[in-house]
From TrEMBL:
Gene Ontology CC: one annotated term: bacterial nucleoid
Protein name per the record: DNA replication/recombination mediator RecO N-terminal domain-containing protein
Source taxon at top rank: Bacteria
Alphabetic keyword roster: DNA damage, DNA recombination, DNA repair
GO biological processes: DNA recombination; double-strand break repair
Gene3D superfamilies assigned: Nucleic acid-binding proteins
Sequence ranges assigned to domain DNA replication/recombination mediator RecO N-terminal in this UniProt record: 1-77
Pfam families per the UniProt record, alphabetical: RecO_N
Length: 226
C-alpha cells in the first residue's frame, strides 16, 4: 500500500467489527473507502476527526486494488460543519447526496472545500444554490452560464435554458418553459465565477425563487431530493 496525505470530506461512516469504522471520504480525485482501525476504543483520539461533515487532511495507506479498503493512519480535521444549524444542514443535505453518488464528480470538490470555509447562517442558502448550479454544469446539463447558447455574446442576456444555457435578446425562446427574472439570471451568471465574487455580486433576495426552480429540475432529472 502506498502512503499518501489526502484532503477530503467525511461523507459516511459505518461500524465495522468491534472497534473499527469504515469511512467514505470525498476527495478531489474521487471517493476513497478506508478502514479506521481501533478508533471506537475508548482510548482512541481519532474518532473525533471522523464525524460527518468534517473537512480535513488524512494520512492513508492507499489500496492498490480498487475493490479493497484503504487504511487510515491518522488525520487532522480542519473544521466541522455545524449540522445543528438548519440552514447549514440544508446545504449538507444536498452536498452529502452528491458525494454519495457512485459516479462522484471530483470537479465539485474544490467548490465544496470553498463552501466549507465560507458558509455561515446568512449565506448558506446562496452557497447551496451556487453548489447546485455548478454540480448541474459538471454533469453536462448546462452548456454555458455566461453567454448566449447560439451566438456566444454576453450582452443583453434575457433568459436561461437548462438544455443549452443563456439566451440573448435575439435568440431567446418565445415560449420558454421557465422565464427567469434579471436578478435570477445574474445569480446563474455569477455561478460560473469564484464563490467570493458570486457572494459579492448577487442579490440574496432572489436566491429562494431560483432554488425552487433548481429543486424541481433536480427532482425531475436526478436522484437528488431537497
Amino acid at each position: 500500500m502506498a502512503e499518501k496525505i489526502i484532503k477530503g470530506i467525511i461523507v459516511d461512516r459505518l461500524n465495522f467489527r468491534d472497534f473499527d469504522l469504515i469511512i467514505k471520504l470525498a476527495t478531489n480525485f474521487g471517493i476513497i473507502k478506508m478502514v479506521a482501525l481501533g478508533v471506537r476504543k475508548t482510548t482512541s483520539k481519532n474518532i473525533y476527526i471522523l464525524n460527518l461533515g468534517c473537512l480535513g487532511e488524512f494520512e492513508i495507506f492507499l489500496a492498490k486494488n480498487p475493490n479493497k479498503l484503504s487504511k487510515l493512519k491518522k488525520g487532522e480535521c480542519f473544521l466541522h460543519l455545524d449540522l445543528v444549524n438548519k440552514n447549514i444542514y440544508s446545504f449538507w443535505k444536498f452536498s452529502s447526496q452528491i458525494m454519495h453518488e457512485q459516479n462522484f464528480e471530483p470537479k465539485i470538490f474544490p467548490i465544496l472545500e470553498q463552501a466549507f470555509f465560507k458558509i455561515n447562517t446568512k449565506n448558506a442558502d446562496a452557497i447551496k444554490v451556487y453548489t447546485i448550479i455548478n454540480w448541474i454544469k459538471f454533469n453536462g446539463w448546462i452548456a454555458n452560464l455566461t453567454s448566449c447558447k447560439v451566438c456566444k455574446t454576453n450582452q443583453r442576456l434575457v433568459n436561461f435554458d437548462f438544455a443549452g444555457g443563456m439566451e440573448c435578446f435575439r435568440h431567446r425562446s418565445l415560449k420558454p418553459l421557465i422565464r427567469f427574472n434579471p436578478k435570477e439570471l445574474e445569480i446563474i451568471y455569477w455561478s460560473d465565477f469564484s464563490l467570493d465574487l458570486f457572494l459579492e455580486k448577487i442579490d440574496f433576495y432572489y436566491i429562494y425563487s431560483l432554488f425552487d426552480v433548481l429543486k424541481l429540475f433536480l427532482n425531475k432529472n436526478s436522484y437528488i431530493f431537497l
